[in-house]
Specification:
Elements: H1 2-16, E1 40-43, H2 52-67, H3 74-91, H4 98-103, H5 105-119, H6 127-141, H7 148-155, E2 161-165, H8 169-179, E3 187-190, H9 191-194, H10 201-211, E4 218-222, H11 225-234, E5 238-242, E6 269-271
Parallel strand pairs: 1-2, 1-4, 2-3, 4-5, 5-6
Helix pairs in contact: 2-3, 2-6, 3-5, 5-6
This protein binds magnesium ion.
Residues 44, 46-48, 222-224 line the site of magnesium ion.
């Protein structure tokens, strides 16, 4: 029952949330300042500031069209990649892979491509070349969402800003460089550089120390309920959950966005456009 009620509340909030215009939280009176006690703001990167899954889908479409071989179709390759991704995304967090994954995104990206080709009986000798082309095309297609730049510009200088992102150190840095957003941030908390990532509580303690702000003086803005919102709630932070229709992995079985897990409290705010934050920050 509680689960149903919380999902209904989200649906209600989402219906009121019109992407591209400021969102209003359903449970707050108009004009209220949700985040008046916030002194530092932290953003997730992928699918919060920029459209990572959209870029990944574009990259995969391009390379699988280029490299479809021996009667294998791009759609078979995409399906095989998605299938292998579901297993390998967990495996890279194991002892066998994690250190390499943190240091060098190319090793795990190429291994996933090798497994994809093997799954459709294609020539795995091309795995590295296809993997490199995929990175190039994914990077080409990676863009900030409308409103991201405006939000960072509005908040810069008013709050210490931090970036908290999971993924290999080299790849996350490449993304930051491509997007041109490095100068907005006072601190960077990158999984590959720390050797641990969200939802590890150490990530949030590090961020608090960097901004010299404690618990509810911090705001986490992110698209992942499990990796951004839940651990931030556990650290006593304010939370803003970003939900966009584009936030669906190429490996998704349902084609739908992540739902709020049953054991999680409601985030303080649900939004589809980062500019909606500006109504609730000084
Ligand atoms: Mg994300």
């Amino acid at each position: 029952m509680c689960r149903e009620l919380s999902l209904l509340a989200i649906e209600r909030d989402l219906k009121r949330t019109n992407p591209g215009t400021p969102a209003k939280p359903g449970h707050n009176p108009p004009g209220s300042m949700l985040f008046s006690d916030v002194k530092a703001v932290f953003f997730d990167l992928d699918d919060t500031l920029c459209g990572y899954w959209d870029a990944a889908k574009t990259g995969l479409d391009i390379v699988f069209t280029e490299y479809a071989q021996n009667g294998t179709t791009p759609s078979q390759l995409k399906k095989a990649w998605a299938n292998e991704f579901r297993t390998f995304a967990k495996e890279v967090k194991s002892d066998a892979w994690y250190e390499r994954y943190c240091r060098d995104g190319g090793s795990s990206r190429t291994e996933l491509m090798r497994r994809t080709l093997a799954a459709v009986d294609a020539d795995t000798a091309q795995a590295e070349e296809i993997s490199t082309r995929y990175l190039e095309e994914r990077q080409n297609a990676l863009h900030l969402f409308e409103g991201s730049l405006e939000t960072l510009q509005a908040l810069k200088g008013k709050y210490p800003l931090g970036l908290i992102t999971n993924g290999p150190g080299d790849i996350q840095r490449l993304e930051i460089e491509k997007l041109g957003i490095s100068d907005f941030f006072d601190s960077f908390h990158i999984e590959g550089e720390m050797g641990y990532g969200k939802p590890d509580p150490r990530v949030f303690t590090n961020a608090e120390n960097a901004a010299n702000a404690r618990g509810p003086e911090n705001l986490m803005v992110g698209n992942s309920a499990q990796h951004d919102i839940k651990p931030a709630q556990q650290a006593g932070w304010h939370t803003a959950w970003v939900r966009r229709p584009s936030d669906v992995s190429p490996s998704s079985r349902t084609g739908r966005q992540e739902e709020l897990p049953v054991d999680m409290a409601q985030p303080d705010f649900i939004l589809a456009d980062l500019r909606a934050l500006l109504d609730h920050l000084a």
